[in-house]
Amino acid sequence: MDELLYTLAINKLETLTTEHQQFALEALESGKVVHLPSYYFHSPALADKEVLSETILDGKHKNLSFDYRSGRLGGLQKKHSNPDLQATLQSFMQGYAVFSKLLVDTLLPQYCDSLQWGRTSYRPAEIKNRSSSKRKDDTRLHVDSFAASPVNGLRILRVFCNINPIGEPRVWHLGEPFSKVFRQFVPQIPAYSAKKAKLLHFIKVTKTLRSAYDHYQLHLHDRMKLDDDYQKNVTKKRMDFPAKSTWLVFTDHVSHAALSGQFLLEQTFYLPVSAMASPELSPLSYWEREKFATLDAL
Ligand code: SIN
Ligand code: FE
After folding, report:
1. How far is 199 from 205, CA to CA, in rounded Å?
2. CA–CA dist 53, 289 (Å, integer)
3. Which residue of 126, 150, 195, 266 could cross-link 121, Cys pair, CB 3.0 to 4.6 Å?
4. What's the gap in Å between 146 CA and the centre of ligand 2?
5. How many angstroms does the Cα of residue 172 sit away from the middle of ligand 1?
6. Are strands 256-260 and 64-66 parallel, antiparallel or unpaired?
7. Could you tell me the strand order of the sheet in which 73-74 lies?
8. Whose CA is nearest to atom 3 of ligand 1?
9. Is residue 58 pLDDT above 70, yes or no?
10. Please, what's the largest Cα pairwise distance for the chain?
């Protein structure tokens, strides 16, 4: 098995074996990407030129976002000429949510009962040369953490599918294992303050109270991205995810960056650490060992 990648060369879920399931579980939890080079999402909506155009974005958001549970679509340019476009995109993204759920349920049956829905995201804009602050710049290596939406220790499991219609890859960097990232940055990260978390919630910077876990993970995300020397010198490997391929990764502990590519679908799931085969590998477990006296600190 590759150090960073577990490749699963199936083209339909029916051919998955128990061994595949075991390897995939181990690979993901130990910080690898599970790549399915011959398995991908396709939809009749992709024949619609407007779906494959970044002009559908409202200008404020980098992505379209869809909530499977409510059916709500966000980020769409309202004054669009085609009145059917919203419905087309809703069913397109719902289709991807269902595709991702079926993949995770089949590949990782151990997670099935505990998995929680997160957002579905469609990224129709080219990411290369897009300007943003360092903190928001996903071309810099980072682990995922959401500034406004605390996860309270839940794992962030994401399913990506490159739907680029002209065969362009999604190009990523993968950085060091979480244990190394953690050791590098932990001394710089200030202690959690419950008072500050209350204030951030009061002034609506966060949607719910930021937990100690979220505080630490967000600092880790920010410190990685803001450190120019680290970004330049740290060991990293370029990874090209071809068009018409799918990959899964726990982005809260895999150091990653997206360098170039256009037209990507992504589904987020949340998973309680207790549902993992090896909970001690979770970022929560690292922070507990290092920073928290007890779980109550959350
Ligand atoms: C990211 O999660 O940092 C970006 C992934 C991508 O858009 O390829
Ligand atoms: Fe990310």
Report:
1. 9
2. 47
3. 266
4. 10
5. 8
6. unpaired
7. 5-7, 33-36, 245-250, 155-162, 264-271, 116-123, 64-66, 73-74
8. 138
9. yes
10. 57
Pocket of ligand 1 (CB under 6 A): 123, 138, 144, 170, 251, 256, 258, 264
Model pTM score: 0.96
C-alpha–C-alpha distance, residues 136 and 139, integer Å: 9
Q: Which domains does the chain have, with CATH numbers?
A: 5-290 (2.60.120)
Query: How many other C-beta atoms are found inside a 10 Å radius of the C-beta of residue 73?
Result: 19
Note the pLDDT tens digit of each residue in 169-193.
999 999 999 999 999 999 999 999 9
Residue the block writes with tokens 């726990």: 250
Q: What is the distance between the alpha carbons of residues 172 and 40, in angstroms, rounded to a whole number?
A: 18
Closest approach atom of ligand 1 to CA 172:
8
The answer to whether residue 26 scores a pLDDT higher than 90 is: yes
